[in-house]
# Entry
Amino acid sequence: MNEILAEFLRGYTATNQWLAILPEILLALLALSLLAVEMASPKAARAQVGRVAFYGQLFILAVCLIGCFTGPATTGAEPLFSGMIEQSGTTQFMRVFFLLCSLFVSYLGGIYLERQPLARTEFHHLVLLVAAGMMLLVQSAHFVMLFVALETVTVAFYVLVAYGRNSVGSLEAGLKYLIMGALSSAILLFGIVLLYGVAGNPALAASSSDSLQYSALAEFISLHDGNLLVRLGALLVVAGICFKIGAVPFQIWVPDVYQGAPTPVTSFLAVASKAAGFVVLLQLVQGPFAGLGALLVPVLSIVAAVTILFGNCAAVVQGNLKRLMGLSGIAHAGYLLLGVIAVASGVAWAEGAVLFYLFTYLLGSFAVFAVMTFAAGTDDTDQQISHYQDFAKEQPFLGGVLAIGLGSLAGIPPLGGFIGKLFLFIAAFQAGLYGLLGVAILGVVISIYYYFGWIREAFFSHYNETVPTKTAILPSMRDRLLLGFLAAASLLLGLYPAALSLLP
Amino acid sequence: MNVAQSLLVVLFAPLVSAAVIGLFLRRQGVLASYLSVGAAAVIAGFSWIAWSGAQGETAAVSFSWLKVGQLQIDLGFLFDGVAATMLLMVAFVGFLIHVFSLGYMKTDKARARFFGGLSIFMFSMLGIVLADNLIMLFIFWELVGFSSYMLIGHYMETNAAKEASKKAFIVNRVGDVGFLIGIVYAYWQFGTTNLTEMGAIAGLHPEMLNWFVAGCLLCGFIGKSAQFPLHVWLPDAMAGPTPVSALIHAATMVAAGVYFLIRIAFLFTPDVLTFIAWLGTAVAVYAGFCAYAQNDIKRILAYSTLSQLGYMAAAFGLGYPGIALFHLITHAFFKALLFLGAGSVIHGCHHEQDIFRMGGLLKRMPLTALTFLTGLLALCGVYGLSGFYSKDGILIAGSLENPAIFTLLCGGAFLTAGYMGRLFWIAFLGSPKSEAAEHAKESPLVMTVPLVLLAVLSVIGGMTWLWPDTLGGLILADLDHLHHMEGYKAAHKNVLLFGSAAWVVGLAVSFFFYGAGAREDRLEKLAGPVYGFLQKRLWFDEIYNFYVAKIQQRLADLLSFFDIFLLKGVLIRGSAGLVGLFGLGAKQLHVGSLHSYVYWFLGGLVAFWIVATGLLF
Amino acid sequence: MTVGINAFLLVAGWLFAIGLLGVLLRKNTLVIYMSLELMLNAVNLALVAFSRYNNTMDGNLFVFFIITVAAAEVAVGLAIIVALYRRRQTVLVNELNSLSR
# Structure
């Protein structure tokens, strides 16, 4: 008996790959321990939960970074858990990315929750789970894994979006996100099923018994790129991801949900959720859908062009800042699609361009959303441009961070966003997407109107009318440090972009 | 400390100063000013160390700036003789102007912002001087434009300053668009934007040069150096504080355009060069005329700057970049001196800038007046002063290469002497014509010492035999080339004759025409229409305004339906209307009802289905 | 008589379409939610059918995941709908448009 057990354990330890997903496990443990801390601690000490979450994430970030530099997975892709998960430099990078996102979101969430009579622990808990889910999502190499990770993220997001339970806006946004999200999940699933069915058909060449696996599917699709079910399935999967990244025509939910959700959650949706969608899309066009370039490149090109124009044009006339950030986020998704299309048409390094852009987008967006969190009144959904009159005069530090964040999003030269756009545009140029490039440049020009409209309102407007009473919180030293980091990093990446390649 | 390290110190000292001022010293004007001056001193010191360390060798340093896939862009310094000359000039003149500002801006409320701006400017300007590739150059070029915008608009409360800063910024952007296209085109053609590599490739394959790339890059020069037709911003830029006018709009930034041309001289084909020569000549003469109709002491100097930039462009266009650089350097000395002198006068007269309300300042501010006179004579090209040597070189080049240009430039020299004489006789001689001039007092030492130092430089700056070999390499080579050309002797004699005649006659005519300390402008009285014509700067602003008011505005009126949007600060109104139309349409799509949103999904699915069945692609 | 895979797929397709139309046309959020579940079940049916005819087990396995996920979604969704009803006293989508434009 003992021998059998020993044999079993030996076999088990030989395939012990749990270390590979150590950050995800740690995140889940941290999330659970938050609940335990809340249960165990007296009511007065509940505020500690946020601190535990913050430092816990800092620790996991350190673990991730160490893993980045020492782990074996930094080289090529490496299949784990019998092909469910594949790790590469990109997924390692995205781990750090998502952790940074969750770090900022739970930090901003703490500030948001101070003003709202809402439970705190669950917020941090959910943020951590979403981060872990996203990490697994970008690592998945199997459609079942993809679906489960995606749903972990999405279901947690439904709750987060509706977190402001005493605000009609937040609940309505939650409901809208719920129905739209469930619909898109169903569409995505249907696409997966079609692919699964057709690729597993023994009557066809190169069919596989493991047809939900990316590599098996890639082999099949490369032989059957004209098959209707393959084309339809792939397009439905792409449609499901287009929902995540907010690309036309699946972008329509974005402004409403962004407006209703609590500002920290909005930032999470805008940055992390979108980034996860893009990395998955990148992996799909490089993996299973690599043989479908002739189909995907024109479709995505049209989607990208319309997305850029729609997002920018709609943002120009928008006065509500959360909606504006949503619409401008749609435009950013359009620029990012440029990189994806470049990858799909054979410019391999464009993947790096997309990741770089995502990172600068993270820095710029969180700078802006952080300022919005500080500047928001009690009604979180009502943040108008006009509320920013005299903002820079009253809050010079926040004003400066806002200007750098917006400037980076707009792509103004000495800031990171400019380099990010430059990379994407060069990639698009090398891929021969001249028309799309023209549209993108037009979009950038349009975007300057609204970004600078906001900056102008904050810096150069001096109205004597009575401005609505402001409840802006003065940032503490720690807040300043964090915001200063965002601004400085934007600037650093603009001046010395090679700094990011220090990360693997 | 090696050359690269000292150059890094030079570049980043002002950035650190600006950052510290911006972050911590916004309310401590005194500390901010000393920090900024300290940074300028560090720049001057380390520039000297870098130059003496390089010992005439070309130092090139580069590091990987960005790297994605196969795409790699390196940034670095190209520190050759030309850069060293320019660097020392910028560092030294910049330092003197910083010191002068200590006195001039003493009572200003927003001193921290001013000195922070000066530091940012120094950082960007030094970046231009040291940059070894077009992309880095462009980045600093934009930064220079930004800091110039900020400093022109220093007196935010006045409308003129706001308008002028905006004008400068927008007009410069127009030029930069061409510049940017030029960079992209150059990268596409040469596969690199590194100046040294591009030079090597251009030397091997002269057939790769064409007028298009040179013309595009030329646009950047035209905008920054305020050449025709983008010259309109420079006179208005005088709304900024006087030290800024001296530093940015006379000595360094506007000259950066010429410096840029010299850096990329290998790109120019003969036809483009001829074009530049004529362009410069035209501006030299045109600005000379305009200066006669100005009463504001700084505006007269601004037109004089325009005209001298024209001389530099002409020299470059005639094929003598070294002589253009020579004139750039001497011009920086005497024009900075003149502007600072004007600043001293304005300071003494409690911000009176109209020369017809001055007068008698020679007695009241003797040191300022004498140094100003030195600068003036140098500008006019009086024998033995710095301006003489460089202008002499340009005129000789003109007479040898292109007699028509030579004639025009001689006329320009005459005009220069005339309007400068007008300025001096009216403002400094005679009796005071206003309360302010009556009570004018000599400025404090912190302002006069820089004046004296600059005056010394204006006198000896042109004596190339005093220059170390490691500085004037290109200048000496070009001068040498001139000396050995056929007909040099005769040309030299001609130039000596005509050039000297130009300033003697110019000064004399203006003296007898206007008279010492005149109360009103005789030209305006005698020939009103001519004066009006000149005052209108030959109607350039009117043409632009007509375009804006009559053509552009009409279009905008048409689109005033989208008023909400247009009010939000739109640059190009026509296209903005279109965007607004789409935007309003897109806004209406977000009706807030779930059902209508599901229709989008349905539409998307149908579209994808159609694509999948192969009906479209 | 054996039923071919196409028959299953047809039914699955119909179910999916009915679900989509339900989401599109019904006003009550609860019914919309049921329609969404119907769409997921259409997917389940197709998966099982494919699994049977392709002789692979992955599809059957996947169905369990989908059912679990759907249960989680329903839990969250109903909670949101209830919370919304307590604030607004309505669950009709045409009245839920405080967020628009």
